[in-house]
Write a structure and sequence with these properties.
mainly alpha; DNA-binding
DNA sequence: ACCCAGGTGGCCC
DNA sequence: GGGCCACATGGG
């Protein structure tokens, strides 16, 4: 099977978006009250069910800790206890501390960070311990409104089942599919990623391979 | 009693 | 550049 042209890819991606939007959207992500809460949530949700993250966020809110200053002041041990429900609490408390320390040192505020060219900020964020590609892109897109497409496990699962990427493609390769094919529109990227998550949460479980998946028509590979 | 969840870094080859 | 592992809770 020869690979689809750039124009065909673009058409398929827009077709997929339209279909998902019709079914679920618009969803207006990310579920948070402030950009800072988005950043905290992005770290807490690493390989973790969102319901567990909500419990951790609720703990931080209850204690009045959902601010840059408050999280800078708090002991890492106490922070770990408060975010316990989100799992990996020792690692994540350290990662939150790393991020906050870096942000205060480098920019002082989130607004100042987002005032800088986001492509530069992306490189800087990726160098912060505990902030990988998905976390970084989530912050840029959902906290900063920057057109940086977010790739996650759901994106990979759905796109590979549709035959648009390979299972083995790297994060940057999958991200490039979107970045190179679609207009750099943060509203579009915001909805697109949210819709992929919504679709997969409902229909793309790990074991069964999308039996009777309504997106079959978009598949570039033969249905089994 | 399993299996899974909106990853990441360290270590190894 | 990849493959494997630890990290941990709560829901289905």
């Amino acid at each position: 099977m020869n690979s689809p042209t750039q124009a065909e890819l673009r058409a398929r991606l827009m077709q997929l978006f339209d279909l998902l939007l019709e079914r679920y959207g618009p969803l207006h992500w990310w579920p948070a009250d402030t950009p800072f809460e988005v950043c905290v949530g992005a770290i807490l949700t690493q390989n973790t069910n969102w319901l567990n993250v909500e419990k951790a966020i609720a703990n931080l809110k209850r204690e009045g800790l959902l601010s840059l200053e408050a999280l800078w002041e708090i002991d890492q041990e106490r922070l770990a206890e408060l975010i316990r429900p989100s799992g990996f609490f020792n690692i994540k408390s350290a990662r939150l501390k790393h991020f906050i320390g870096w942000l205060l040192e480098r920019y002082g505020t989130l607004d100042a960070m987002f005032a800088e060219d986001w492509r530069l900020v992306r490189e800087e964020l990726l160098a912060v311990r505990g902030i990988g590609r998905e976390t970084c892109d989530s912050m840029l897109l959902y906290a900063g409104g920057k057109p940086s497409f977010v790739v996650d496990a759901y994106t990979r699962r759905l796109l590979s089942r549709l035959g648009l990427v390979r299972e083995t493609d790297s994060y940057e390769e999958v991200r490039s599919l979107f970045m190179d094919s679609l207009p750099h529109d943060s509203d579009l990227f915001n909805e697109y990623h949210a819709l992929i998550v919504e679709q997969c949460k409902r229909h793309c479980r790990k074991k069964p391979l999308c039996q009777g998946c309504p997106l079959q028509g978009l598949c570039t590979r033969p249905s089994r």
